[in-house]
């Protein structure tokens, strides 16, 4: 009996559904923040080795990054397909972005396409990239700089949200840590002897607040005073701000960055403090391939009667990959409630059975798209043309 590619994918994912559910819950119940995802990384890589995948750990200089790979018995002359898993959590919130689900979706897609390569005798290679620190630092950016993704023809992943989309244009973002250094003194006996680093942080925040009047509607600037002082009766000699700016493109991001840096500098100048700014890697805007995106949205419409996810808000280090590779960052609806990511309710929803089943459906949809790239040369040519047109 002849079995279709779609049936191979569906059966493969169904076979491991309960195993992946257990993995997802184990990661959800033990949330680990950026670059500390030791338990999650071990759970995932140990599982992959039980499925006889070749697993490379400590990839790109990151001890919680990995690659699992499989080459078809027909050889490696075909496409090199890559999927991405994320598994870091948010501080104090846990898996409020559903990375426990993204982790197992990557495994599902890897297993499905491995089976397609094997059963259909199609030459090619499939890899799962374990990518830590998406919520902070930008693990994919570091891995890309280290050449980890080189040789990959296409990179794909799924992400839970409040709707579905195959063309999510995320915002560029840049995070900064600003430190102010002043001089401590007794706040009652000799305040004039002090230089108030806490005041510098306050002025910086207020100045940026005033600056927002000149922001474009899609620009964002948000942050916190992480350290403002220790006790009320002492002039603080140290403060720290954690700040993020966002824009729709890299040119606008540079404009916001330059303006905000002036606010930080002005706060130091007016208070007499010195200051230091540390910038993290900039997350670039995500640019999904339109041919892949249309197919994904068509498949998702078969399952969900929910609106497309709006192209507003949020950033991802996957966006950096989309500027150099053919990519698809498929969004899918987590719970049909409209609850936003990075919330306590989203964290709770991310461990439900319904959320897991939706994740497996999204993984199946992405796998079907990847398989079509393998077996339909005309489709793959159209994907490549769309990518070249983007670069033109």
Automatic annotation (TrEMBL):
Gene Ontology MF, one: dipeptidase activity
Listed Pfam families: M20_dimer, Peptidase_M20
Domain of life: Eukaryota
SUPFAM superfamilies: Bacterial exopeptidase dimerisation domain (SSF55031), Zn-dependent exopeptidases (SSF53187)
Alphabetical list of CDD domains matching this protein: M20_Acy1L2 (cd03887)
Domain Peptidase M20 dimerisation: from-to ranges: 174-268
Family: Belongs to the peptidase M20A family.
Xref: PANTHER family: PEPTIDASE M20, XAA-ARG DIPEPTIDASE
Protein name: Peptidase M20 domain-containing protein 2
Organism: Coemansia reversa (strain ATCC 12441 / NRRL 1564)
């Amino acid at each position: 009996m002849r079995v279709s590619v779609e049936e191979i994918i569906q059966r493969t994912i169904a076979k491991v559904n309960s195993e992946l559910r257990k993995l997802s819950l184990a990661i959800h119940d033990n949330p680990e923040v950026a670059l500390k995802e030791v338990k999650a990384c071990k759970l995932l890589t140990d599982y992959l080795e039980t499925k006889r995948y070749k697993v490379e750990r400590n990839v790109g200089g990151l001890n919680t990054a990995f690659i699992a790979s499989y080459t078809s018995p027909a050889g490696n002359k075909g496409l090199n397909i890559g999927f991405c898993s994320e598994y870091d959590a948010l501080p104090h919130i846990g898996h409020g972005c559903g990375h426990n689900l993204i982790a197992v979706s990557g495994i599902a897609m890897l297993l499905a396409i491995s089976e397609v390569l094997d059963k259909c005798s199609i030459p090619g290679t499939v890899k799962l990239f374990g990518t830590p620190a998406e919520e902070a630092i930008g693990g994919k950016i570091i891995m890309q700089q280290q050449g980890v993704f080189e040789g990959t023809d296409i990179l794909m992943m799924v992400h839970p949200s409040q709707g579905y989309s195959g063309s999510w244009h995320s915002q560029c973002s840049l995070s900064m840590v600003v430190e102010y250094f002043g001089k401590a003194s007794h706040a009652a006996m000799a305040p004039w002897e002090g230089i108030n680093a806490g005041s510098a942080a306050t002025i910086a925040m207020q100045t940026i607040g005033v600056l927002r009047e000149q922001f474009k509607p899609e620009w964002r600037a948000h942050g916190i005073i992480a350290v403002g002082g220790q006790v009320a009766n002492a002039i603080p000699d140290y403060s720290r701000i954690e700040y993020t700016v966002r824009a729709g493109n890299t040119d606008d991001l540079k404009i916001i960055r330059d303006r905000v840096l002036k606010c930080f500098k002005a706060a130091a100048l007016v208070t007499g403090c010195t200051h230091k700014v540390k910038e993290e890697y900039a997350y670039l805007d995500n640019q999904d391939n339109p041919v892949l995106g249309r197919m994904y949205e068509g498949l998702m419409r078969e399952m969900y009667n929910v609106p497309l996810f709006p192209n507003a808000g949020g950033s991802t280090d996957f966006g950096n990959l989309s500027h150099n590779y053919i990519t698809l960052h498929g969004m899918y609806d987590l719970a049909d409630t409209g609850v936003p990511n990075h919330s306590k309710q989203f964290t709770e929803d991310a461990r439900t059975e319904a959320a897991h089943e939706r994740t497996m459906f999204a993984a199946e949809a992405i796998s079907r798209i990847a398989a079509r790239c393998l077996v339909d040369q005309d489709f793959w040519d159209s994907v490549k043309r769309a990518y070249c047109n983007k670069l033109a």
